[in-house]
Amino acid sequence: MSLGEWLDERTGIKRYLKYKMELLVPDHVTFSYCFGGISLTILILQLLTGIFMTFFYIPKPEEAFNSILKMSNEVPLGWLTRNMHRWGATILIATIITHMFNVFYHKAFQKPREFNWLSGFTMFLIVLLFSITGSILPWNWRSYWVLAIWTDYFASWPVIGTHLVTPILEYFSVGRSFVIHILLLPIISAVLLTFHFKMVKRHGISGPL
What we know:
This protein is mostly helical. It has a single domain (about 35-205), classed as Up-down Bundle (Cytochrome Bc1 Complex, Chain C). The protein contains 9 helices and no strands. The chain has helices at about 5-10, 15-20, 35-55, 65-75, 80-105, 115-135, 140-155, 160-170, 175-205. Helix 4 (about 65-75) crosses helix 5, helix 6 packs antiparallel against helix 9 (about 175-205) and helix 7 (about 140-155) runs antiparallel to helix 8. The chain is globular, with a radius of gyration of 21 Å.
């Protein structure tokens, strides 16, 4: 018995994959419908490259940037992993925005798909938080100005803005940003994506206008 047969006998993975491959795709589905799946693929790559980087990154202000330099210059394929993670974050935001634009265009946010839209939009906000906290982690001049610009932005909000400055500066320090980036946001993302996909499965792919 081959390893594949042994695994299939215990998990039914081949039957499951065959079932998925035989699912019918509506005739109106084009490449523009694929940006949700593309976003998920990039998010998985972000997870894998992020796990790799946690073995070498040191979440301390005085050591953060040097640990990234060491990983990029001394660890095999460290430079590739870091760049995949860094540029993947930018591409992920672009693909999610494109996905949201397609949802608007096809009016897929209307009844009965309101929860699809709300969970997807919330996931977009979480990805923005991923990007912000990730930009802070290297703690170089760029990271400093990312934190400064976002702090100034929230400070400009009427009524509550001035009260947000101190919490932002305290809770988005290097160490806390690291915990938020690798623990809190991934947990929230897993819950949101599970709910989002269940809603998509329940209501199906929206049809043409």
